[in-house]
Amino acid sequence: MSGSANSSLAKEVGARLEVDLAETRLDRFPDGEIGVAVDPAIGGADLYLLQPLSPPVNDHLVELLLLADACRRQVPARITAVIPYLAYARKDRTTKAGEAVGLRVLASLLGPDRVDRVLVVDPHVAQMQSILSVPVEVVSAVPALATAIRDRVTPDATVVAPDAGAVKLAQRFADELDLSNVAIVLKDRRSGQEVDVSGLVGKGVDGPALLVDDMITTGNTIAAAAGTVSDRWEPSSLMIATTHGLLVDGAVDRIEKHSPSAVVMTDTVTHTDLPPSYRIASVAGLLSGAIADLHWR
Ligand code: R5P
User: Fold this and answer.
1) CA neighbours closer than 13 Å in the CB half-sphere of residue 209
2) Which of 47, 85, 180, 194 would be a feasible disulfide site paired with 76, CB 3.0-4.6 Å?
3) Phi, psi of 20, deg, nearest 5
4) Would you say the CB of residue 218 lies under 6 angstroms from ligand 1?
């Protein structure tokens, strides 16, 4: 079953599994409220409900919760929420006094009364299993992203983490691509829109620089890292790889100013009209494989 956030991905996953998508109806009331209805024939089914929490995040979240509620009322055997991009994962703890912990709130919404299990792709927080109260299956798009960019990566390439939080991810890309150079940009986030860069750890060589991050939202982090890398050494080309390309608030233009030779991302979030340098590594195979596996467990 698909929510409205990424029906093309849901159709592709269904096609690979050779199953039809269950019918749903989405109504939007004049005040912005959403109403949903599902096919009552799903009773008894092992149900997979696909809805990334892409922008508009809050609408897609409420739609997912309403769909889960509508499904639960038909008494399916089990509901797995397939959430290719999981929003509200940035805040898994407070870092300043007075803050809310978004991931805890999300965890309480995705509890056992609504869903039995959650399947996510490259969540921002690694320890999802200890935060959600239902079982969480995590799959990674890193191998698919590495495959999609491999033809441009020479052995002298450096993988660059745009902040300390992306170091493990950079190392995973380096392992996938058999690269030994990893560098880290030192970033401080001032607000959702502003980042400061104070330095670079690691030494780039003359080859390409591959900037990697789990998600690109406004593109400020990647653009700041690209600027820092180009200032400190002259990479022969700049490439970017990310799982979740949210690309809001002029992110594409911000990134294009650094003339990347390739930007590879997945289709957890859909876009039209991306520049020709963008390559999409679909997660449809990853999700259909995970669903086929979960169906028997
Ligand atoms: C932060 O820790 C994340 O990994 C990303 O670096 C961040 O969300 C990217 O946001 P933006 O593109 O707005 O800088």
Assistant:
1) 29
2) 47
3) -80, 150
4) yes
Report whether residue 215 contacts ligand 1, using a CB cutoff of 6 Å: yes
SS3 105: helix
Q: What DSSP line would sit under 261-275, residue for residue?
A: SEEEEESSS--SS--
pTM to 2 decimal places? 0.95
Sheet bearing 117-121, strands edge to edge: 46-50, 78-83, 117-121, 136-139
Q: Dihedral angle at the C-alpha atoms of 16, 126, 280, 161, nearest 10 degrees?
A: -160
Catalytic pick from 11, 96, 168, 187? 187
Residue 187 a catalytic site member: yes
Report the run of H or E that residue 186 belongs to, with start and end: strand 181-189
Distance in Å, CA 222 to ligand 1 centroid: 8
Angle between helices 167-176 and 142-149 (to 10 degrees): 60
Kind of pairing between the strands at 34-38 and 24-28? antiparallel
Q: Is the CB of 288 under 6 A from ligand 1?
A: no
Smallest Cα–Cα separation from 262: which of 281, 239, 229, 245?
A: 239
CA distance 5 to 195: 29
DSSP, collapsed to helix, strand or coil, labels residue 30 as: coil
Q: What share of the chain is helix, strand, coil (3-state, %, to 5)?
A: 35, 25, 40
Distance CA 13, CA 56 (A): 22
- pLDDT, tens digit, 9 for 90 and up, residues 206-263: 799 999 999 999 999 999 999 999 988 888 999 999 999 999 999 999 999 999 999 9
CB of 217 sitting under 6 A from ligand 1: yes
Bridging pattern class, strands 46-50 and 78-83? parallel
